[in-house]
Amino acid sequence: MTKIKVGVIGCGSIAKYRHIPEYAMNENVELVAFCDIVTERAQGFADEYNAKAYTDYKEMLQKADVDAVSVCTPNSLHAPISIAALEAFKHVLCEKPMATSAEEADAMIAAAASSGKKLMIGHNQRFVPSHSKARSIIESGNLGKIYSFRTAFGHGGPESWSADGSNSWFFDKERAFIGAMGDLGVHKTDLLRYLLGEEFVEAAAFVETSAKQNSTVDDNAVCILKTESGIIGTLAASWAYNGSEDNSTVFYAENGIMRLEDDPDYSLIIEYKNGNSERHSLGAIQSNAEGKQTSTQVIGHFVESILNDSEPLVNGEEGKKSLAVILAALDSHEKKQIVPI
Hints:
By secondary structure, the chain is of the alpha/beta class. It has 2 domains: about 5-125 and about 295-315, NAD(P)-binding Rossmann-like Domain (Rossmann fold), CATH 3.40.50; about 125-285 and about 320-340, Dihydrodipicolinate Reductase, domain 2 (2-Layer Sandwich), CATH 3.30.360.10. The chain has helices at about 15-25, 40-50, 55-65, 80-85, 100-115, 130-140, 175, 180-195, 300-305, 315-335; strands spanning about 5-10, 30-35, 50-55, 70, 90-95, 120, 145-155, 200-210, 220-225, 230-240, 250-255, 255-260, 270, 275-280, 340. A hairpin with a 2-residue loop joins strand 11 and strand 12. Helix 4 (about 80-85) runs parallel beside helix 5. The longest helix has 20 residues, at about 315-335. This is Dehydrogenase.
């Protein structure tokens, strides 16, 4: 079968460490084009993969023979580039957060529907083994009624990860739109929606800029969220965890407590109220820490959805619903009140 020809728009760290290597390992993919405003970055990957280099995404979409693209740019460009690619009849895998507003998200979804091409958002937490197992456990009813949760995603900040270090676009509101809440928090809103199988309806939040100098976006946020059935919990997103990364989620339920990625040795632990317990070692979660990076499975799922003409697990509608929680948190902070989602 003919391989899917892929172009990558934005050749910074997320492309370098996640998208490009996973495409390269996929036997159904041929990397044929790279685009970045920094010529050297695009050209470096083009040389490595015998592909074409571009500095203008519009030119790449017009001239390159690609079937699909990954959009790995600053957040403010996610929507315009994704829409342009979909209108050029290319399948799109867009990094998170998918957009900077509900209106942009709607426009992306409409472009996908009009073109008949796939639109997937790069929320990788759904594919983590402990999270997949947790979803099946919750669905089984073994935990009984879920009462509450706490989840956190925090590390020392993107300066150690981003290709531009402390000068990264991550800290610039005009290009990033949102800081830790968009970089990390939106991953957890997507995960919680997926695990609980229901939507959030209310949010209250403190979203602060306190830890990073010369930053115009949030770096420390705490949210209280409520689902449609009344499950309440907290979500913390931070670039101020200056030690080991925290990527944990805990559920408090009728029959016990389930801990995900909250123990160095066991990625899923259940402590039942009757005294019994379960401990599962399911492999390390995706992490920026050296030695812990594993396949995100995002690329493989995107490719499979194209090959099988199936709907991606995290399509545009799902991405929009996860974004909506983050937008509500921002609104809550600005209004100093609980807001509906």
